[in-house]
Amino acid sequence: MPIRPVALLFLCIAITACHRPEPETTQGMVIEEVAAPQDGGAISTAPVKVVPAKPEGTRQARTSVREIPRPEPVIPEPSKPWAAPLELTSGVASISCELDYAQLGDGDVLTRFDRDGIKQALAPCETGGVARLRYKGKVNAEFGTLVERVTEVADSMDIRKRVLDIDSAGGQVEDAIQAGDYIAESRWTIWVREGAICHSACVFILSAGDTRMIAGQVGIHRIIRMSSTATTRAQLNAELRVVYERVRDYLERNGAATAVADLMMAVPNRSLRLLTTEELELYGLDGVNPAQDDLDRLRLMRKCGEDFVSRRDSFVRAFDKRCKTPDTDLDALNACGLKLRTDFGFPDQTCPSESPLSEFDRDTATLAPPEAAQSTQSVSKASGEKKRGKDS
User: Fold this and answer.
1) What is the distance between the alpha carbons of residues 38 and 51, in angstroms, rounded to a whole number?
2) DSSP state of 22
3) What is the CA radius of gyration of the chain?
4) Where are the beta strands (DSSP E) in 100-259?
5) In the chain, which residues fall in CATH 3.90.226.10?
6) Which helix (H) or strand (E) is 94 found in, with range?
7) Which residues contact 118 (CB under 8 A, 6 or more apart)?
8) How far is it, in rounded angstroms, from Cα 222 to Cα 202?
9) Using 50, 70 and 90 to split pLDDT, how confident is the model at 234?
10) Among 235, 236, 262, 341, which is disulfide-ready with 346 (CB 3.0 to 4.6 Å)?
11) Residue 270 pLDDT
12) How does DSSP assign 240-275, residue by residue?
């Protein structure tokens, strides 16, 4: 083959490579690089005990990683959310009493994090009993304290319906686990709306919600050990094994598949693997929390009756089948659910607060589904077009 055609062939290949389309995010591929994983990600900083070296004079035989004793993590002290002043240095929080973020926004930004400041922000939500905490930033100890404080004040004001509307690239693993365990006991719904992300350590927060509504991106990658004392690969792996065991235990008690931890280990921390809609459901990260669902089933059988539980199960199956379609924004997802639930007799007159999507129901009135406004706009538009047709 002549030299010139060969050169042209390689040139064409190079040009094609430069213009290669981005991998499809729906295929569960590693689709993007993370410039600085330490700025978000899944970072573990909890001290662990490193395996002591063998005494001098003994034979340094090659040791299998499986034979290295597992070091124990340091158990954090119980949280004291009001012990010290709180300042959000890595995120922004706001509180809204409305769930229609598309039309009504996210409320006022929180600037005071003492009891009086949070109570003042929640005061408009007291009548309806519904509050939405919007948080954009890192998952760290500050975030965990914020959630605890808002929960405690909301409880004192009898605001029982709570939505955490999160947008986070991740943060500290241990802080995320501690915050997640608290959220799991505090009856929160978690939103990841369109345009938002929940990456790395944020996935632990997502798994803790009673119900998870997802329209944005959920991604995972390998945990980073910061401030490690390891000097060998075996020691570092021993430390990571402790962290991953903690992650597996956490996921298991919160109804998510432990396979998520295994997936994390396989993705370099400078890359990101987006989870598909099918994977989110498969791993128990979307929709009703399986662990909470088991607990609720027993409670609801006693409180609301067998028929209620049966209709609730049927609604969940129908919602997953009819409403969860690719590229559906959260506003439309909620609208679909609110419309669908009437087919199953919800909200239930006997147990209204236990009905699906009851966070949209108020004590004095029912919040109009998002599609109601859209329908009104459609009617107005149609009327306008009809009028213009007559005029012409």
Assistant:
1) 26
2) P
3) 25
4) 108-109, 130-137, 161-167, 170-172, 188-192, 197-199, 211-214, 217-220, 224-225
5) 65-288
6) strand 91-96
7) 95, 110, 112, 149, 150, 153
8) 13
9) confident
10) 341
11) 84
12) HHHHHHHHHHHHHHTT--THHHHHHHTS-TTEEEEP
DSSP strand pairing (41-44 vs 217-220)? unpaired
Select the highest-mean-pLDDT range: 32-36, 330-334, 364-368: 330-334
Query: Tens digit of pLDDT for each residue in 310-363?
Result: 999 999 999 999 998 878 899 999 999 999 999 999 999 999 999 999 999 874
Q: How far apart are CA 100 and CA 105, in angstroms?
A: 7
Sign of CA pseudo-dihedral 206, 207, 212, 216? positive
Give the Cα separation of 283 and 258 in Å (integer).
Answer: 8
Position 385, amino acid:
E
Whether the CB-CB separation of 221 and 34 falls below 8 Å is answered with yes
Q: How far apart are CA 180 and CA 182, in angstroms?
A: 5
| Length of the chain counted residue by residue | 392
Dihedral (CA of 158, 159, 161, 164) sign? negative
Fold of the domain spanning 65-288: 2-enoyl-CoA Hydratase; Chain A, domain 1 (3.90.226)
Task: Show the CA angle centred on residue 296, arms to residues 246 and 256, nearest 5°.
Answer: 30
Q: What is the pLDDT of residues 253-300, one digit of tens each?
A: 999 999 999 999 889 888 899 999 999 999 999 999 999 998 899 899
- pTM of the full structure: 0.78
